[in-house]
Here is the input.
Amino acid sequence: MLLDVRNIERSGFFPLLGSTFVLFAGAMIALATQTSSQTQQSSASPPTAAIQTNPSTPIGQPGVTGAPPTAAGRTQGGGLTIVVLDPAHGGTDLGARGGGGMRESEIVLDFAGEVRRALEQQGFQVVQTRQGNDNPSFDDRSAMANAQRGAVFVTLHISSTGLPGTVRVYVNSDLPAVTDTNGFIPWDRAQAPFLALSRKYADLVQGMLAQRFKGSPDAAQTGTVRQLRTTAAPAIAVEVSSVTVNDRSDLDHMAAGVGDAIARGTVAFKSSYVIPNMPGALP
Here is the structure.
């Protein structure tokens, strides 16, 4: 099911030092750049060092300094190249369950295979948050996306409600980009600077799905989706209806179409893909 609202909080922060967007993969994600006068972090900051990255260098490779972004945000150095694909649930978390032993956690893993193939055919690199029946934490899933450069995040769900044979896309509900006195964004508001881009991406994917699956809405919806809230990248949730079908093959037959729609929506989104350098700096 879609609405994963377990309140797992993170003590990490996102430093926003002037026009610098520092992110740490895991507890914190960093996109850091040097300015003409080096800004020192407050002693109240978490006891971890900033990662400085070149625009073409993946986050997580420390010690490389790049040019600062413009005030209006900058286009990604290599553009959108990576999709972090999240089959929801897993392990002891079975998700929604239907008749005949249908389990959301298993079905979305099969869907992920079709989505991955469609994305790779369009030239995208795909990083999956899980490959088997494990259950990474919400923060671990977000951190995998936050550790990439040129990425978007897509989490896949099968609902227990809704008109069977339809698909809905969600973006996170509004998150005011609140910072503390030291210029830090809390981990659980990492999505805030990316909401406008997430909505644009979601509407493009939803439009593709509506063309293929009759009865699906034309525009994306908002919801409280835990995986999205802590993701510092354009991020959407795709929810297929539903586990209430009598025959699982009715769902399995949708997988290729869902994959194709996500891939085509992602291609359409490439020209809009930018990185905001501060809350509210999105175009």
